[in-house]
Amino acid sequence: MNQILEIQNSQQQALLYLLAFLKEQDYHFTTITPLSHQRILERKKNEIYKHRTLQDIFGWNLGFKKTDLDPVLFELLQEHQLLQLQQGQYLSQVRVSSLDNELFIHSAFPTTQQDAVFFGPDTYRFVYHLKQYLATQPHPFKRAVEICCGTSAAAISLARHFPDNNEIMVADLNPKALLYSQINISFAGLNHIHPVQSNLFSNLEGNFDLIFANPPYLIDPDQRQYRHGGNKLDGCDLSFRIIKEGIQRLNSGGRLFLYTGVTVTEHGNLFLQHLKDSMKQHQNIIWSYEEIDPDIFGEELEQPAYQHVERIALALIKIEVHA
Fold this sequence. Notes:
The protein is built from nine helices and eleven strands.
């Protein structure tokens, strides 16, 4: 165990150096969907080999030669097992993406590992809508938590744009997500964001003024942690649990903001039906449901688990406990 911790701590320092190096080089990279990413990879792989840029190496995750990278950075990453040699070229074992002028470490492409840490279009949309929502709220929050935090991009963005908060917890079941979160938080220089390994709220103490989450919401045959939202409610079981358990952990005047995908069949929106039934039990709650994109992840409809589904929509659920 001590050896594992030493390796993680050593890798953490190497990744912090990587982020600092990229920041100094004014590195920016926007992560796109896996299908689009694969198309760009195929295009670039078919090109005549040329010098790889930092975006090629740490954004597109293309193979590169030793001479393509700063020698000090190359040696550091190789020493800490953050490079893989494959068919005569090196591959970075992490990617780095940008959002709001911040840089974030996350998993290499393709994200096929069980413990892969997600960053992508959902991250950008989630952060955007969360900021838009909080900008309209009259009461500041003092204690907040991000559930299923992944890279903690939302929490870091929140801390930057709404600095009047005392404490933000970021919770995830995946140890690698917490490792990357700690690196991203440390690099951002924010000492009031605290990673906690927790299955939703199980290891979190006390109540919160704000709970926000962008949980997994698909049925993933491989049950990868960043994608699989459970087999119930067509992958939305985790989202429903966050609402149900989260309401019990809100302070008076507290708010819950959930970004999730939902399925729609010929019989309607099962998640919304369950949500309406659940909300009837609470007299002191104001809530809203808003569909912000009618059709996402259309390719999932080809999977056996989705043969009864007509579309997967993107929704925001906002809940407030009456003071």
